[in-house]
Hints:
Layout: E1 4-7, E2 10-11, H1 34-37, H2 41-49, E3 53-62, H3 79-89, E4 96-108, E5 112-116, H4 117-120, E6 125-129, E7 135-144, E8 149-154, E9 176-181, E10 189-200, E11 210-213, E12 225-227, E13 233-242, E14 251-255, H5 256-269, E15 275-276, E16 279-283, H6 286-292, E17 300-305, E18 321-325, E19 328-329, H7 335-342, E20 348-355, E21 358-365, E22 367-368, E23 391-393, E24 396-400, H8 403-409, E25 418-423, H9 428-431, E26 439-443, E27 446-447, H10 451-463, E28 468-474, E29 480-486
Antiparallel strand pairs: 1-13, 2-4, 3-4, 3-6, 4-5, 5-8, 6-7, 7-8, 9-10, 9-12, 10-11, 11-14, 12-13, 13-14, 15-22, 16-17, 17-18, 18-19, 18-20, 20-21, 23-24, 24-25, 25-26, 26-27, 26-28, 28-29
Amino acid sequence: MGAFLTRTTAPLCRAGFAILFAAAIAWPAMTAPVAARGPDGIADVAEAVIDAVVNISTKQTVDMSHDAIPQLPPGSPFEHFFDEFRNRQGQGQTPRRVNSLGSGFIIDPAGFVVTNNHVIADADEITVILNDGTNLKAEIVGRDTKTDLALLKVKPDKPLKAVKFGDSDKLRLGEWVIAIGNPFSLGGTVTAGIVSARNRDINSGPYDNYIQTDAAINRGNSGGPLFNLNGEVIGVNTAIISPSGGSIGIGFAVPSKTVMPVIEQLRKFKEVRRGWLGVRIQQVTDEIADSLGIRPAHGALIAGIDDKGPAKPAGIEAGDVIVKFDGRDIKEMRDLPKIVAETPVGKDVQVVVIRKGQEVTKTVKLGRLEDQKEAALTPKKDSPEEKPVVKKALGLDLANLTDDLRKKHGIKDNVKGVLITAVEPNSAAADKRLQPGMVIAEVQQQPVSTAAELQQRIDRLKKDGKKAVVLLVLTPGGDPSFVALSLQ
């Protein structure tokens, strides 16, 4: 069975479950090296912080509708079994209450608790259970689905034990870390391991930069803290990769550098206010970097500009490659969204781009992501209709855009360029997923309007000894992307 990524919230199960014990075997006495046993400070850290780690119990009402049970065709040999099951469950009559358990930790003696958003998502009731067994009703202060974080508030009779955040940027590979949580509803459980990797992208959201650890993290650990040996929270345990749902030593935690600003804004505004640049970006591949004269490949390539975004009035253009934002280097595409999101709304930011081989600096007043709206598309009249011209270039059949071709392929009026009418099978263009109906708007960052003009550009690039060409390709709806194709 293949491994899968799973959130680590545990269903609350009243039924017992099997626990396997290893039989005692007599072995010659051995003394394990100190390094194999781990650092001595783990026990001291666990003792100092465990009262700040909480269990989170949630209840929600699930509608046991008729659709919840599989429907079998008449005459099925199992039809009577499902009919009996529906009758026993009172199908369609009584909603069912479902409980689940997760983890969290206290960051303020007044009763502020951090956990994962997926731990409390859709919950009707939330209860925070302290290490001494005290139950406190909790309210949601705010939540953020993009980072899977949530902030809760309880009202304790006395100040609670709280923990502080540490600096996850200072973590080193191989450094010891401690996870504390509520795996499989067992209550406060301490596990230890090392930092296996940093800045992991597990494709769970736009701001992925997880800490990977081999400290045992299981279902129910979600929302629990990951500590360094100073007793500081340097991550929030969120997900694991496992073929069975149990720990195999690959767990992921949201780093404290991401958590702290999110929690601060949830506490202050009850929502997260992120910066917004108003650009569509894509990765700078080796082919694109070679064509644009960027060595080594780095930065974020701007594929499109939102007409109402902050980037446009600042003079940033499609085809620019952002290599530095607010003084921070952009090493790869996914760095940019995280850095922009962390930057305060309304701040004047210096943005360094590479444009036609030269570095250019622009100043952008950052907008707010939540204010982003669909860019208005202003229809424009077509140029005089031309007779379609088909040219063979780069494994593509090309034609001049006409009203009939626009209607045939559903191409919006604001999309200008040369139409792709066919793609040669097994060509580089087919490998890059170019398809009939797409429109080539630019060749090497220069607009093209006819198939003949595009062919001339290709011929000139070949004559100049260029190895690849960069095309700005638009979908029929106008969504842009840059594609590099070999000229050899």
